[in-house]
From TrEMBL:
GO BP: any one term: formation of cytoplasmic translation initiation complex
SMART domains recorded: PINT
Keyword set includes Transferase: no
Pfam families: eIF3m_C_helix, PCI
Superkingdom, taxonomy of origin: Eukaryota
Protein name: Eukaryotic translation initiation factor 3 subunit M
Family under the similarity heading: Belongs to the CSN7/EIF3M family. CSN7 subfamily. Belongs to the eIF-3 subunit M family.
Gene Ontology CC: eukaryotic 43S preinitiation complex; eukaryotic 48S preinitiation complex; eukaryotic translation initiation factor 3 complex, eIF3m
Family matches, as InterPro entries: COPS7/eIF3m, eIF3m, eIF3m_C_helix, PCI_dom, WH_DNA-bd_sf
Amino acid sequence: MKFTMRIYELLMWLMTQVGFLLALFFSAALPSPPPRVSPISPLLSATMTTVVPTSEEDAALSVVRFVSELANAELGPDVAEAEVSKLCMEAEKFIAMGNWLELAQLMVPSAELIFSKVSDKDVESIFTIICNLVTKTENPDEVEGIVEVISEKIIRQPNEKPAARLKILINLYNLLETPKCRFDVYMKALKFAVNGKVTEYIIPSFKKIDSFLKDWKIGITEQRELFLTISNILKDNKSTAKDSFKFLTNFLATFTGEDAQVLSTAKEEAVRAIVEFVKAPDVFQCDLLDIPAVKQLENDAEYSLLYQLLKIFLTQKLVAYLEYHSANSTLLKSCGLVHEDCVAKMRLMSLVDLSSDGSAQIPYELIKDTLQINDDEVEQWVVKAITAKLIVCKMDQMNQVVIVSHHTDRVFSDDQWRTLRTKLGKWRENIKNVIGTIQASKITEDGSQAAQGLVVR
């Protein structure tokens, strides 16, 4: 009996060993099951967290846990875990109660610390979840509060991953529906781009400003801030100088109808607009003379000479500029204006002025004298004017005349409106006469056909 029991025990031991060996064999041969991952698994892989988000609320908790673990990593495992658990419990309470502003205030301070610890992609993932809190509430005040909490933290360190921070602001903008909040975030993004030296990422949006304005429905004060900020961003780049001048002009135009005290606040920008116009090699037309913010300089003791310069460029010819330069060369230099560049621009504008005198044919000799150039340079300057789209013309070398079919006016004031009205009136009369002639011909033709019909019968 004892022998039988010993054999039984031996067989059981052997089976146990064989089972253990088989388990080892199969565990090595079969692939391990894939780990469960969450929507922000690249972030969670850096820690031992076991949170697996299955909803937006879980995603927020995952962010709270992840960033708090990073923020408290140096406190030791016991203290850190206690702090992490505390924050997660608070986050769960805020989520359950729908206190989204309090949740943002809980998440953002710790999340702001991660910029120096994780990649740009991970930063974007975290803040995408945080920014999404603005979509959880329909309370405008709460939305504004969340926006303020997020944006103020983002813009605080413009030199730390500025491109990533700017992208977060843009993502936040795209999540918003309230016009006021959208405008506020866009302005913060503009100013941050300047401070962080990443304006190249925001400049493409300037092409959509007109549609943005329709969406935002902002007041005059906000428009002034917007136009001036954009103009300042563009002015330092030669390739965008023309656009800078355009937005600066838009800024000055908002002062129409204001009193002298308000106009005086735009005096420096009006001076800058004059200098930028004179300096710009590809801007030949503007309405600055009629804008009150600029016109106030005409009788200003300090800046009246600059207004006079603007008037020369928009209404007179090269000879007037040369006389001005002789008396005010120091002023031009102090404004950063190069005399040779001014002469070149005035030659083109003088050629336009000759085209607008009412004569369709301009003799080469007149062009030479007006532009103060040599005989062999006349056609070169005509070509330059054509290239700049200032005139449409043909050069008759045989008769030494330029035949102009169209020109661009330097200004479009009341005189130009009256001229346009006269032309439209003439076209209207011509069209009316043509229609009358056609109708008369049709009546005659119908009468002839009727008469022929009677004869046939």
